[in-house]
Amino acid sequence: MPRKIKVIKKKSHEKKKDPLAQEKLLWTIGHSMMLVLGLIFSITYFYHAILFFKYRDIKWLFLKSKSEYSIVTGTRWFHKLLKWAPQILYRLALVGGVLAYSTTMKQNCKGWSPTWYDLLSSENFQTLMIVLLWLFTFGKSFYRILPLMANSLIHLMNKKYEMTNEVDDKLNSDVARKHSKILKLIAYSEVFLMITLFLDTFLMKYGTAGVSLILYLGIFWLRLIYSPYLQFTVLSILIKMDKVVPKSKKKQWEKLKTFLKENREKREKRQEAYKATA
Question: Which positions, given as ranges, span the membrane (predicted)?
Answer without folding.
Answer: 25-53, 125-143, 185-207, 213-239
